[in-house]
Amino acid sequence: MGNENAYDKLWKIIQDTKFGMLTHRHGDGHLHSQPLTTQNKALDEDSLLCFFVARDGDIARHVPTDANVNIAYANVHDDDYVSISGTATISEDQAKKDELLDVNALSAYRYPASKRLSRPRSPQHRCAECWR
C-alpha cells in the first residue's frame, strides 16, 4: 500500500461497500443520517462521490441550505472503516445521471423484474455530488 494515494486507498475501502451512511443537518440543527449507494464506477483525485437522492427527500431539501455533510463506510469483512466530511451539491445534470445510472440497481428496488426492460426516467431522482 505504500505507493497508493489517498483516493486509491479510499476506493479500495468503498468500492465493494453497498451503502454509505450520509449525515446532513436539518434546519433545526439536528443531524440525520441516511444510507445511500455510491454511484461511482471509479474514484480519482478529480472525482466526486455521487449518489442518487429523492427529489423531494430530506437530503435534496436540506443540502442547499447547509451543504456540510459526512459519509461513513464500513467494510466489515476487511475490518476497514472510513468517515469523510465535506460539502455536497445537488445536480440536475441529466448526462451525469445517465452516465451513473445502473438500470438494474435502480430498478431493482422500484420495479419487478418484468418491468426492468428499459431505463427508468424518473423525475423524482436527483444526483447528489459530494466533495471536491
UniProtKB/TrEMBL annotation:
It comes from Variovorax robiniae. This is Pyridoxamine 5'-phosphate oxidase family protein. Pfam families: Pyrid_ox_like (PF16242). Residues 6-100 form the General stress protein FMN-binding split barrel domain. InterPro entries: Split_barrel_FMN-bd (IPR012349), Stress-Dev_Protein (IPR052917), YdaG_split_barrel_FMN-bd (IPR038725). The lineage of its organism: Bacteria, Pseudomonadati, Pseudomonadota, Betaproteobacteria, Burkholderiales.
